[in-house]
Amino acid sequence: MEPFLAVSGDPVAVPGNPSGSHAIARRALRALDEAREQVAGVLGCRPGEVVFTSGGTEADNHAVSGGLPPRPGTPVCSAVEHHAVLEPTLALGGESVPVDRLGRVHPAALAEVLRRVGDSGGIVSVVSVMAANNELGILNDLEVLEAAVREHAPQAVFHTDAVQAAPWLDLADTASRADLVSVSAHKLGGPKGTGALVVRNGVGLRPLIAGGAQERGRRGGTHDMAGIAGFTAALVASSDSRTERAASTARLRDRLANAVTGIEGVSETVGPEVAESLGLPADRSHLLPGHLHLMVDGVVGEELLFDLESRGVCASAASSCASGATDGSHVVAAIGLGDSGAAPLRLSLGADTTREGVDIATGALRASVAHLRGVTRAVR
Ligand code: PLP
Asked: Alpha helix (H) ranges present in the chain?
C-alpha cells in the first residue's frame, strides 16, 4: 500500500489517478490492472468481472438493489443474512427465507418463497444467500440453492455474500455458481473499507455510486489505490496460506469447543450434536474453522462480554454491526433460540490464535461465568 499512500516526490510513490491519460496516470492504471488480474485469479473470474468497492456492505447493497434505479421485482434473501443484505432487501419490499436449526437455507424453503412471489403475480429480482454466516459460521450449499433459483426464478440474479467464507474457502470453486459475489478486505487481514463485487459477464448492474465511468461504468469515483493494493495483497496471501491455516485453526477451535462445553450451562449453538440431529456427521465440518458460537445459561449477555473483556478476552454476541448483546440477534432468533434465556457468545479464532490463547480464553470464560452466576445469586 505504501507507494499509493506516499506523497508525490517520493521516488517509489505512485501518485497518479488511474482514470487519467498522462504518463503518471498510466503507471497507476498498470498497478490497478495488475491488482484486478490477481483478484480475479483468486476469485476464479475474469479481470473485467471485478468491481472494486468500499467493502462488503457496498458490494451487498449493490448486488441486492442492482444499482440506481433498483432492478424491478422482489428481492429475496435468507433470514440470517448480514444487515448489509437484509436492510436493502427489506427496504425494497423483499421477502426472507426461513432457515433450519443450524441456520442453513434449504432448497425446498427457498423454492416455496420463490413460488409464493410468482403466485402473487410478482417476479423475483435477486436471490441472496450467504456462503457462510458471520455469527454462527454455518456453511450453505450454494450448488443446490443455485439450482433451486434457476428452476423456480430463472430470471433472478443469484448473489452470495462471501465476506466470511473468503479467508477459509476456495471461492473460485464454492462461489462459482453465483452471478454476484461480495468480498471484503478486512476479513482477510487487509485494510478496512475496501473489497469487491464479482459481476459475471452478462449480468446487468447499474451503478449504485453514479459518477465517472470507472469500473466499466459500474462504480463512479476515483479509485482508492492504497486500499485496492492492500485488499489484493491480503487476498493473495490468504489464498496461499488457506489450506494449512484452515486445518490448524479448526484444530484449535475444536480444542476450545471441547474445553468450554465442559463448563456447566455452556453449550455449542450449532455444534456436532445439533448437526447429528439433522442427519449430518457429528463433527464441525458444517462450520467455518474460525467460528465457535455458544449459548451460556444463567448470565446476562452484555455483562458476560464486559467481564470477559476485563479478563483479556474480546468476544461478541452478534455481528459487530449490531449491538447484539442488548438488541438480541436476528440470527439466533431465526434458529429458534431467541427466547431461550441463555446469552449468545461468539468466539472467533484466526491465524494468530495459539493453544495458549485458547486455554486462556477457556479459563477466562470459566471464571466469568462463575463470577456472574455468583453475583446473580447474591442479588437474589
Ligand atoms: N457481510 C458479512 C457476512 C459480514 O460479516 C460483514 C462484516 O462483518 C459484511 C457483510 C460487511 O462488510 P464491510 O464491513 O466490509 O462493509
From this structure: 2-5, 23-43, 56-65, 83-91, 107-119, 142-152, 171-174, 214-217, 225-260, 272-277, 301-310, 324-327, 330-334, 355-379
Give the pLDDT score at 324: 44
On the 0-12 / 13-18 / 19+ scale of CB atoms within 10 A, 302 is middle
The amino acid that residue 240 corresponds to is D
* Rg of the chain over all Cα atoms, to the nearest angstrom: 22
* pLDDT tens-digit map of 59-85: 999 999 999 999 999 999 999 999 999
User: Quick one: which of 97, 156, 167 has its CA closest to 132?
Assistant: 167
Tell me, yes or no, if 45 is annotated catalytic.
Answer: no
Pocket test for ligand 1, best of 128, 187, 192 (most atoms within 8 A of CB): 187
List pLDDT tens digits, range 211-241.
Answer: 999 999 999 999 999 999 999 999 999 999 9
Q: Which of 58, 184, 291 is the pocket-test mutation for ligand 1 (most atoms within 8 Å of CB)?
A: 184
CB 131 within 8 A of CB 175: yes
Q: Of 133, 98, 370, 79, whose CA–CA distance to 269 is shortest?
A: 133
For 68-95, the DSSP string reads: SSPPSSEEEEETT--HHHHHHHHHTT-E
